[in-house]
Design brief:
The complex is a heterotrimer of chains A (436), B (172) and C (316). Chain A is mainly α and 436 residues long. Chain A contains 21 helices and no strands. The longest helix of chain A has 34 residues. Chain B has one domain. The longest helix of chain B is centred in the middle third of the chain and has 36 residues. Classes of the chains: A mainly alpha (436), B mainly alpha (172), C alpha/beta (316). Chains in contact: A-B, A-C, B-C. The structure holds sodium ion (2 copies).
Chain lengths: 436, 172, 316
């Protein structure tokens, strides 16, 4: 077995170099992984790459990605999204940062409809970026709110990531679902509070200096813009809760439901369906090819005995249990910069969970901290899915540096949430203790 | 000459991409059909799960070339945006092309063998009783990668056109 | 050491079968060989999806893996189902062990998997694969209209009794049971089912088991196998047997404990009476007897199974 420190350093250095040179992300990930597999594993092991690529692209759970993108593309092209932001503007126009808060609220609802994170980020990117930018919101606020809000999908149930965690960690999935709800809402609340604070401090990038206030007549009239999105949300969530649709199938309810929405508004044309399909193709391909490359890389890293490296780092510590816990969370933070969620779960959970239990911590509570660290991983460079997804939907005037800069405060807020959950475990455990 | 090649390649890849994009509508239809069939008629359609997943494979692999040609494979542009067209062309013709070549070679050769093996054994779906041909879905991977190589070629040709003839608008 | 192999398990780290693989195969073989061969064990799906495990092992992604034949019926035909175990046939691990090691089914399995470029060490006997349900199931009639997660031969069997088989991946079952997308799921033994938290959302545990003695198997890359000296080959073959039995022994206690815990959490055992069950098993037998028409390997497999059942005095 090669030295895991060597392979880790090479992966980090290679990623940083190729991404800085501007190599397309999917190609950098794929090419680098193949080189590393060839050198450090075996030429025969390269067969893993197409096998995993096929299983990624034929994964039923990932069908939600193109379907939610199609839904968002339809809603955007039929101007349902714009109408929705008009309604929010009418109601929250008097509140600086109001639309940013509204965006977080919609992201939270989206999180309750989707089991994976990418679908929400990219859909909300399509819906909210143009609507917010055109209403006087700065790049910073807009991008940060969407990237961070989009990451809530794996913390608020349903969540594919929690199921993977629950099975690998032998932990109750029901308790994890219940345990994620409150921290998810707490994080959403932290985001909202922060965005309102920014609005108060910097009105010029939070909807503009002049506040528009609307009368109740206008407010009432504008409620029309809320009807279609609300019906769609109820249809998607309802189809899950009533057992008509599995979590993956619910995305098809959203996608199919977006078509009548456009028809009702008399904006549905064949050209529009075609254009929405083409948007879906471009964005889905961008996402899936990145996932294919990232999967090759995580698998290589797992095969190289990354678990042993992690085990060595943690087992050597014979100190206060809280320090061990913080060390584990720090390892998750660093791994989140480089690897995708499933890879991190495979490598760390079998090592961490027995330690956590032996130290007398609750595995459900740790699971929620773990999931929040995975959410942070969506936002941290060099490898952060949500950063890349936003790059894919944002207009060309927005640079990658804008995106990197925009997420920093939200990463800090999520770390604050981790600390809150450590100081007050009740935030996590209150609901599961009541329900189970 | 350069322009002729660019136009021809672009036509092939765009035509393919436009057609494949419509598959998302088929996927939606299949999934809704399954939900209705199961919910209303109490009969799950054995083929629906496989067919929607396999259509996704075609969507991603046959659609990838168009996405690549349209510049949808995102990059970290922090430094890249400051490079001159010549620098961009040189980097993409060397470092990126090397990385692309090994990635594509693995998917083309090993993915091709994977699909051929499936075809040779007449692999059928094991998930239900409908016995769909799995090789058909697996073949999308090498096939799409083949077109992806063409798309990369198209991308390089455009880069060099822009580098050699500054001032003309690039199209991706 | 002279040989360093990677093994992907069919289970998650810490599960009884994973521990049996780590301790009673990998460690035991290392010890017995005086350290000439060593192993690195990985959890299921860590390096490749189990559905394409044959391709991965034959291409040499890993030297070895524990795989499940049920996934490969579409690749190899019904012999893969016969290898995994078919309902309405064998009932105890001892019967299954004898079927493989004393009646020659092992050679047939080696022949079948050899054609896929994989050397078949032997079966890894598994604890039962059971059904958990959101409504009581106490008769054949209760299968009528039942939406049950299953696949392969079993799916055909349940469908024959009026059920609607639904296929979904492991990650979707919990939520699907919770919301009612499916009414029942055929998954693992009590401890495996509890590991997936199914007891939280499906309160009925159906008995008897539709798959009382299934098995996974130890697969080895042919070239890696051919490269071993004979003494190491013998050691690995014996370690495979030891690990297989160790898994069954461990599971007995784990499953009994899991069953009690689930019952404390409100799960009820839902029993199908003997006479009714015998009629259901007869339906299943019709399905796999028909395999005899589907090629030479399957025909020999069915013949072998029938002969063994006759030997046990269980022919109708
Ligand atoms: Na969610
Ligand atoms: Na990251």
């Amino acid at each position: 077995m090669p030295d895991p420190v060597l392979t880790t350093s090479l992966l980090f250095a290679g990623m940083a170099l190729f991404l800085a040179l501007g190599v397309p992300i999917a190609i950098a990930l794929g090419g680098l992984s193949i080189g590393m597999i060839y050198l450090f594993w075996s030429p025969m092991a390269l067969n893993m790459v197409p096998i995993k690529a096929f299983s990624t692209a034929s994964s039923f759970e990932y069908l939600a990605i193109p379907l939610f993108i199609f839904m968002a593309a339809m809603l955007q092209r039929a101007r349902v999204a714009d109408d929705l932001y008009d309604t929010m503007q009418t109601f929250f126009g008097g509140l600086r940062g109001g639309l940013a808060v509204g965006t977080i609220v919609i992201c939270t609802l989206f999180a309750a409809m989707a089991g994976i994170s990418g679908a929400a980020t990219i859909s909300m990117g399509m819906i909210a970026i143009p609507s917010m930018l055109s209403r006087g919101y700065g790049k910073d606020i807009t991008l940060g709110a969407i990237a961070a809000g989009g990451s809530l999908g794996i913390l608020i149930p349903p969540s594919v990531t929690m199921i993977v965690y629950g099975i690998v960690a032998n932990t109750s999935i029901g308790k994890l679902y219940a345990g994620g709800l409150m921290p998810g809402l707490v994080i959403a609340a932290l985001f909202c509070a922060y965005l309102m604070l920014r609005g108060w401090l910097q009105p010029e990038i939070s909807g503009g200096e002049t506040l528009q206030r609307y009368g109740w007549r206008e407010k009432l009239a504008s409620l029309r813009g809320l009807v279609l999105p609300l019906v769609l949300i109820v249809a998607v969530m309802g189809s899950i809760l009533t057992g008509i649709a599995s979590v993956s199938e619910a995305s098809a309810v959203g996608a199919a439901g977006a078509i009548p929405c456009a028809v009702i508004l008399r904006r549905c044309t064949w050209a529009m369906l075609r254009e929405a399909s083409e948007d879906t193709l471009h964005l889905s391909c961008m996402i899936f090819w990145i996932i294919i490359g990232a999967t090759a890389m995580s698998t290589f890293y797992t095969a190289m005995g990354a678990s042993r490296l992690i085990e060595g780092l943690v087992l050597g510590l014979e100190i206060n249990r809280w320090i061990i816990l913080i060390a584990m969370l720090s390892i998750l933070f660093v791994m989140g910069m480089l690897l995708d969620t499933v890879g991190i779960i495979m490598i760390t959970v079998p090592i961490f969970v027995p330690i956590v239990v032996a130290l007398g911590f609750d595995p459900v509570w740790f699971g929620i901290l773990f999931i929040i660290m995975m959410e942070i991983g969506f936002l941290t460079p060099p490898f952060g899915y949500n950063l890349f997804y936003l790059r894919g939907v944002a207009p060309p005037s927005i640079r990658m540096t804008d995106i990197y800069r925009s997420v920093v405060p939200f990463i800090l807020l999520m770390l604050v949430a981790v600390v809150l959950c450590m100081v007050a475990p009740g935030i996590v455990m209150w609901l599961p203790d009541r329900l189970f | 000459m350069l322009d002729t090649a660019i136009t021809a390649l672009d036509r092939v890849i765009t035509t393919l991409g436009r057609a494949v994009a419509l598959l998302v509508l088929v996927i939606i239809a299949v999934m809704i059909f399954e939900m209705v069939s199961r919910g209303v008629f109490g009969r799950s359609a054995a083929w629906a799960g496989d067919v929607s997943a396999w259509l996704l494979v075609a969507f991603i692999f046959l659609g990838g070339p168009w996405a690549l040609a349209r510049g949808k494979f995102v990059r970290v542009d922090a430094l890249h945006e400051h490079f001159r067209p010549m620098t961009k062309a040189i980097i993409d013709s060397t470092v990126s092309t090397l990385l692309f070549a090994v990635f594509a070679a693995a998917l083309l050769k090993l993915g091709g063998e994977f699909a051929l093996k499936s075809f040779a054994m007449g692999e059928r779906s094991a998930t239900g009783s409908w016995n769909g041909p799995v090789w058909l879905a697996k073949a999308m991977m090498p096939l799409g990668t083949g077109f992806l190589v063409l798309a990369w070629l198209l991308h390089l040709l455009r880069l060099w056109r822009d580098a050699l003839r500054p001032g003309e608008a690039g199209d991706a | 050491q002279e040989y360093q192999w990677r093994i992907q398990s069919n289970l998650n780290a810490g599960e009884p079968g994973y521990v049996a693989l780590e301790e009673k195969f990998a460690q035991l073989a290392t010890d017995m060989s005086g350290g000439r061969i060593a192993f690195e064990v990985y959890p299921v799906g860590a390096l490749f999806p189990i559905a394409d495990g044959l391709e991965a092992v034959s291409a040499g992604v890993t030297e070895m893996a524990v795989l499940t034949g049920g996934y490969y019926a579409g690749k190899m035909g019904p012999i893969a189902s016969l290898e995994s175990g078919v309902p309405g046939s064998l009932r105890t691990p001892t019967e299954r062990f004898n079927f493989f090691y004393k009646c020659g089914f092992l050679d047939l399995a080696r022949e079948a998997y050899g054609a896929q470029g994989v050397y078949y060490f032997g079966p890894q006997l598994s604890p039962p694969w059971d059904i958990m349900s959101t409504k009581p199931i106490t008769s054949k009639a209760d299968f009528d209209g039942l939406k049950i997660r299953s696949f392969g031969l079993e799916a055909d069997w349940y469908e024959k009794m009026g059920a609607s088989p639904v296929f979904m991946g492991g990650g979707e079952i919990y939520t699907a049971l919770a919301t009612g997308v499916v009414d029942a799921a055929r998954w693992a033994s009590p401890s495996g089912n509890m590991n997936n938290s199914f007891h939280e959302v499906a309160k009925y545990y159906v008995q008897p088991s539709p798959m009382p003695v299934p098995n996974n198997f130890f697969a080895v890359n042919q070239a890696a196998w051919d490269g071993l000296p004979d003494d190491l080959k013998a050691i690995l073959n014996e370690a495979a047997v030891a690990s297989s039995l160790d898994y069954i022994m461990r599971s007995m206690n784990n499953d009994a404990r899991a069953m009690q815990e689930m019952q404390e959490a409100g799960v009820e055992v839902s029993t199908i009476p003997d006479g009714e069950w015998a009629a259901m098993e007869a339906e299943a037998r019709e399905l796999w007897q028909a395999y005899a028409e589907e090629g030479d390997l399957a025909a020999r497999g069915v013949e072998m199974l029938n002969a063994f059942l006759a030997d046990l005095g269980r022919t109708e």
